[in-house]
Design brief:
Length: 266
Amino acid sequence: MTQQDRTPVIPAGRRGDMRSEPDDVVGRRIVPTEDGCFPAGCFDPLVHALLTTLNRVTTTGTPPGSGADVDIGTPAYKEWAVIVSALLSGEQIVDIRKGGLREEGRHFDLRSPTFWLYPTSEHQRPELLKTAYRHRIELSPGSPVGEPVTVPGWAEVVATATVTDPEELDALNSKLIWTPDYAESRLRWKSRDPLWVLALRVHRLETPVVLPWSDDYGGCTSWVDLRGLPADPASLPSTPALSDEAFEARLSGAREALPALEPAAE
């Protein structure tokens, strides 16, 4: 049986929870696009769950929940490569997130107070960055879909906030390399959900880790369970992106801009 044969089929007449379901979709296979996202108007959480399970079975040979499950450990946080580069250089210590189309539960949640950094080339575009940072796109290629994944570092979440007011987001403008318009578009998307603000203490690995690609790493999601990494990121030699003094100064500035930033739960 081929991989395509294993792809779930939407039964004719089933309407499910799709945002839209044109007649030519019902009764045929729904296959993710090249970047792992479903075609516009064809997202169904049940189908996504089935595809995720099939990917796990075909890439590891074991179904979720079986005694042979791999111990994944610390998750990886998927973000534009140019943003990861800014975090690793200390240029930026905060990130903002709403979550992707394939988010578990369809909403962003902080899965772990510590995570690996997964720089991706998916969706990043120079015009969405402030002019002074646009050239960094060429210097931050990230890990293209279908190719080995390079993990250059990890992060600790030291403070979080959720915002719904454009004025709160605007106060963070000097802390982000995105254009104000693009940052606001993240706030407007999924308007019923708040925008998460994460203050991160980032560490650069002395030797980046390169992992083989797996199909379940693709798509529009914040969190990816990369296989082949130690459970504790601190177990690998690494260096903080900023000194203690420099980081505390940046964090103080972020808290002055956004008083809602509170220490992350242990």
